[in-house]
Amino acid sequence: MDNKEVISTLNDLIEISKDGEEGFRNAAENVEVTPLKEYFLDRSQQVATSVHELQDLVRTLGGQPETESSVSGALHRRWLDFKTALTSNDTVAVLNETERGEDVALAKYKKAIEKELPPTVRNVVQRQLEGVQRNHDRVKQLRDAARAEVG
């Protein structure tokens, strides 16, 4: 894999991670439960740290790092706002949409790790993939628990 392809792959991950950072922040704004709000804000901050790490890798490789989230991510956040406004149980709606966002991130990271990345890049992507998987699994657990409370 040439340097341009590695930079492109990293920029794709930056974009999807920016989506996650903003998505978690948006989710925090759409829930009333304080522990859940705190969880989402913490995840947003952790994803922001991952974004900076990826951006530093792109710079190290001589590229220009992505700084914006994707258009589809922005549309997803607007959909979350709309759906939450229409839903009687906004916590479940927020968790459903957050999990969908994490599904997309997980798929992007899995696709990236299948590529022939340089070892230092691979190590970072693998570690971040594990974090995305943990986020996904935790959001799914929270969603299932919220659904059970509703009945």
What's the structural blueprint in terms of helices and strands?
Elements: H1 3-29, H2 34-60, H3 71-86, H4 90-113, H5 119-150
Helix pairs in contact: 1-2, 1-3, 1-4, 2-5, 3-4, 4-5
Q: Number of folding domains? A: 1
Number of strands: 0
> What is the CATH superfamily label?
Ferritin, core subunit, four-helix bundle
CA-based shape: elongated
At CATH level 3, the topology is Ferritin
CATH class equals: Mainly Alpha
Specify Rg, calculated over alpha carbons. Answer: 16 Å
Largest sheet: none
Kindly name the structural category: mainly alpha
Q: Assign the CATH architecture.
A: Up-down Bundle
- N/C terminus separation: 50 Å
Helical residue percent band:
over 70%
Count, helices: 5
Ranges where pLDDT stays below 50 over 5 or more residues in a row are none
Nearest-integer average pLDDT: 88
Q: What string, H for helix and E for strand, traces the elements in order?
A: HHHHH
User: What fraction of residues sit in β-strands?
Assistant: under 5%
